[in-house]
Amino acid sequence: MRRDFFQMYANHEEVFEPWILSQGRNRNREDDITFQFIETQPHRWLFVGAYMILSKYELIGHDPIADYDEIPYAKTEKLHQYDAFEGRAIFDWTNRPRSWWYVNPEIVDNVPLFEILPKPILERTNQVPGFENVNVDYQTLQSELTSMAWQTALSSVYGVYLITDNRTGRHYVGSATGAGGILSRWQTYLAKGYDPEEENSKDYPNRGLNELVQNHGLDYIRHHFSYSILEIFSKNEQGRKQALAREGYWKDVMQTRRFGYNRN
Description:
It is a single chain. The chain is α+β, with helices and mostly antiparallel strands. The protein folds into two domains: 5-116, no CATH class; 124-259, GIY-YIG endonuclease (3-Layer(aba) Sandwich), CATH 3.40.1440.10. It has helices at residues 5-10, 16-20, 105-108, 138-144, 148-155, 181-192, 207-216, 218-224, 237-254, 256-259, and strands at 33-41, 44-61, 71-78, 89-92, 113-116, 135-137, 158-165, 171-176, 225-233. The strands form two sheets. Strands 1, 2, 3, 4 and 5 form a five-stranded antiparallel beta sheet that branches. Strands 6-9-7-8 form a four-stranded antiparallel beta sheet. The chain is elongated and about 65 Å long. 30% of the residues are buried. The model has no long low-confidence stretch (mean pLDDT 86). Residues 156-263 form the GIY-YIG domain. InterPro entries: GIY-YIG_endonuc (IPR000305), GIY-YIG_endonuc_sf (IPR035901).
């Protein structure tokens, strides 16, 4: 079973440190300093601690949920001089395939800092104002999705949502029926402007939104788009079918095929 590192971090699970420090003999070398990050949104990496490696693979952790009975991990000393940035510093990084650690200074020294949160991410108490009241612009949504309350709420439901181009008045209606609910769909929109996995056209997924991003760039989305929820459904097969059916209904009501960004 694949583990969600952000949930482990948020729940203060004892096995979190063994997991992030179980990077293999070739990666953990004695006297090395390792900076640890977890992905909270697509391409957004949260700093969760700095450690000095005292000895590699000296300790054994146990995870009752994962498929591994034992997790060998490094014995470390946490470097508390970096605590002020733990849970606050977020970096913008697109991870390379099968690459989970980096030592090349040309890479490490050029990873851009995206944001330093005013308080640690787990201390954010922003509450969802009720699904029916969610209507936020791009920048606000990006900020709110660093809150555990928002992540938990949006990942708990399927739904039909409305995206509005506030510059032109055009709309896009979509549905979220994946494992991550509305959360994962919106996280992808924030990162790319459209979701390549969303089946919106037999010719090209999200063709309308994709064309907009290709022609005007993601900055257009950042400055002009807002997001709202039309309906929510339970995360089961019946809810999935209802969401897909109601997506078509709302496309008809909003006439987004004729006047908006929908292409199907």
